[in-house]
TrEMBL record:
UniProt record similarity statement: Belongs to the protein kinase superfamily. CMGC Ser/Thr protein kinase family. CDC2/CDKX subfamily.
Matches recorded under CDD domains: STKc_CDK9_like
GO terms classed as biological process: positive regulation of transcription elongation by RNA polymerase II
Protein name from the UniProt record: Protein kinase domain-containing protein
Polar residues bias spans: 446-456
GO molecular function ontology, one term from the record: ATP binding
Annotated Protein kinase domain residues: 109-393
Alphabetized SMART domains for the sequence: S_TKc
Annotated source species: Sphenostylis stenocarpa
Pfam families: Pkinase
Keyword Chloroplast: no
Segments for region (Disordered): 403-490
């Protein structure tokens, strides 16, 4: 679909009078599903022919005329592609990616709801008007048509066209027009992604099901690696599933070709943080397909656990979590792998691997495979093929067939996100109510503390009434205790959900993110993904944005210059050594902190009343002293004690 079906087309691109051949509607139905590969084959042939021709001619002609000829051919191709309906901004930058294809028209499809939101794209479900078949349209955004971002998108297209495997998402065509300023990549529609399924509490994968998914995932990856492609962004939301149980690897936006040239430096700012291998966290620019195997290991564990196994908030924390889980590497590792940021990240403490403890419930053969995939030393991770041949797949229970897998209602990462978003909004509303009620309580306390108001009616009831005004919904019925309960319970839950990371300046002067205990994992996962997506360039927690940055392309990021701005979590490092006194939770003293740290409403109430009563006592004492002093002065005493100076002056 979307491709020119004839082999002639590519050859014609280099012929003197190029003409574009296409079926009447741009859907060469006879070649549907195979066209991309055919074009690639023909491309290879035509390129070989062209190369031979150039080789023969090269002895006769000067270099100058060769360049001229190449330029002309290039211009010819562009003109032909523009004539075929491609927009000029695309043909000038990415002619090779679309070579041999013609664009699809938008009106071939009926665009339905949005089903995915990526860092630089939105994905929609769409129905093909003619056949009623479902497709996924990935609309790619561009940063003001910067050639760099167009080139990135072009790379994704080129790589997708190079791949052809049942476990790899197939690019069916591209929608755009000569006047259009956007582009849609057309993919087969998949009902689920693994992120959506994993995060559903009602879905627990069986052992045979996990094996089935893992076999498909590794088969798809094996194909990529054999075609010289590394994905560099394997994670649950990029693994798609349809209702027939077929798994496909999607999102090749960060994929790149494997390079054997050690002088060719790759960027280390790839792979989403929780799935990023240690060598990339330590700045390696000379890596290979093993980065994908680490990510597969993370996905594998997540399928069993139902949640990500390594959820770091920053690069430092991610690496620290890795060392704690997999054990810190031996001295030889540091000597052998000269990683750019090794000295910065080398742990002071030697950690033993806790992987087997953490995954004690996993089948033995699964732990063995997981241990291999999550090897800190990338050379020990094996390959996708060796993983497929491991005992995990050859021991019972065997992987079930995809068609026997249970059918689920459509579940996507975006569904989870929107559910979380609506519950977040609800809880935020409740939190606002409580905040207003707290403000009111504080106002009352101030009134109590104000000497001008001292003695005015400010009873316990007043305080409760003050709270009640703002908390109507919770406080209209029931006894006092019940009112408190209703009023206070949701905000406490909300606090633990929404104030996951509080920045406290610790002794070292770093801004330290602190995890509030009792947090809701499901929520934080989604929330942190958002943070990741928006903060990549500054803290490197996510890779896509940086992928669009020219510095990313040039590989000119300098992590060392970002060190100070990186969130550093000494709390966790120090706590690993033991000792509450080092914990920033315990450093901050005072009542306000006590209130914030108090877990139950009863504790909270006690602390509030204690504070109130303490202040009342203070003022009573002050007033008492003042009265005594005035009495003494009235009796002619000389100025001593409190207020003596001004009174003496008056005297
Ligand atoms: N073919 C498809 N069928 C159904 N849903 C899809 C398809 N392709 C993508 N999606 C949905 O859209 C989401 C985002 O797609 P994709 O990962 O390709 O975009 P992206 O911009 O590269 O995202 P990210 O920045 O998260 O990597 C996926 O997680 C998935 O839920």
């Amino acid at each position: 679909m979307g491709c020119i079906s004839s082999k002639n087309v590519v050859a014609k691109a280099y012929s003197p009078s190029p003409t574009v051949v296409a079926s009447s509607n741009g859907f060469p139905t006879s070649t549907k599903g195979h066209s991309a590969l055919m074009i690639l084959d023909s491309k290879t042939v035509s390129e070989d022919e062209r190369n031979n021709k150039f080789k023969k001619n090269s002895s006769k002609k000067s270099n100058g005329s060769l360049t001229l000829r190449l330029g002309l051919v290039q211009r010819n191709v562009e003109a032909e592609q523009n004539a075929a309906g491609w927009p000029p901004w695309l043909t000038t930058v990415a002619a090779e990616a679309i070579q041999g294809w013609i664009p699809l028209k938008a009106d071939y499809f009926q665009k339905l709801e949005k089903i995915g939101q990526g860092t630089y794209s939105s994905v929609f479900r769409a129905r093909e008007v003619e056949t009623g078949k479902m497709f996924a349209l990935k609309k790619v955004r561009f940063d003001n048509f910067q050639p760099e971002s167009i080139r990135f998108m072009a790379r994704e297209i080129t790589i997708l066209r190079r791949l052809d495997h049942p476990n790899i998402m197939k690019l069916e065509g591209i929608i755009t027009s000569r006047l259009s300023n956007s582009i849609y990549l057309v993919f087969e529609y998949m009902e689920h992604d693994l992120a959506g399924l994993v995060s559903r509490p009602d879905i627990v994968f069986s052992e045979t099901q996990i094996k089935c998914y893992m076999r498909q995932l590794l088969s798809g990856l094996e194909h990529c690696h054999m075609r010289g492609i590394m994905h560099r962004d394997i994670k649950v939301s990029n693994i798609l599933l349809n209702n027939e149980g077929v798994l496909k690897i999607g999102d090749f936006g960060l994929a790149n070709t494997i390079t054997t040239n050690s002088k060719h430096h790759l960027t280390s700012r790839v792979v989403t943080l929780w799935y990023r291998p240690p060598e990339l966290l330590m700045g390696s620019t000379n890596y290979g397909v093993s980065v994908d195997l680490w990510s597969v290991g993370c996905v594998f564990a997540e399928l069993f656990l139902g949640k990500p196994i390594l959820k770091g908030r920053t690069e430092v924390e991610q690496l620290h979590k890795i060392f704690k889980l997999c054990g810190s590497p031996p001295e030889e590792f540091w000597k052998k792998n000269k990683l750019p940021h090794a000295t910065m990240f080398k742990p002071q403490i030697n950690y033993e691997s806790s992987l087997r403890e953490r995954c004690a419930d996993f089948p033995a053969s699964a732990i063995n495979l997981l241990e291999t995939l999550l090897s800190i030393d990338s050379s020990n991770r094996g390959t996708a093929s060796s993983a497929l041949m491991s005992e995990y797949f050859s021991t019972k229970p065997y992987a079930c067939s995809p068609s026997s897998l249970p059918k689920y209602p459509p579940s996507k990462e975006m569904d989870v996100k929107s559910q979380e978003e609506s519950s977040r909004k609800k809880t935020e509303g409740k939190m606002r109510e409580v905040a207003t009620s707290r403000r009111q309580q504080r106002r009352i306390t101030k009134t109590l503390q104000d000497p001008n108001n001292f003695g005015k009616a400010t009873s316990k009831e007043d305080m409760q009434n003050g709270g009640r005004n703002d908390g109507k919904a919770h406080l209209t019925k029931g006894k006092g205790g019940a009112m408190y309960k209703e009023h206070s319970k949701p905000p406490l839950d909300v606090m633990s959900e929404t104030s996951q990371v509080m920045n406290v300046v610790n002794g070292s002067g770093y801004s330290v993110p602190i995890q509030v205990p009792g947090s809701n994992d499901a929520y934080t996962w989604v929330k942190r993904r958002k943070q990741d997506a928006s903060s990549t360039l500054s803290d490197g927690s996510r890779s896509k944005i940086s992928a669009l940055d020219p510095n990313f392309a040039k590989g000119t990021y300098d992590l060392t210059t970002q060190r100070v701005s990186m969130d550093f979590d000494p709390a966790e490092l120090v706590n690993a050594q033991g000792g509450k006194e080092h914990d920033p939770h315990w450093k901050e003293n005072g009542t306000r902190h006590a209130i914030r740290k108090s877990r139950t409403i009863e504790e909270k109430k006690i602390v509030m009343w204690w504070k109130l009563e303490r202040n009342c006592l203070r003022y009573m004492l002050l007033v008492g002293c003042a009265l005594c002093e005035l009495t003494r002065l009235g009796k002619g005493a000389t100025g001593v004690g409190w207020g003596s100076i001004s009174i003496r002056g008056n005297k």
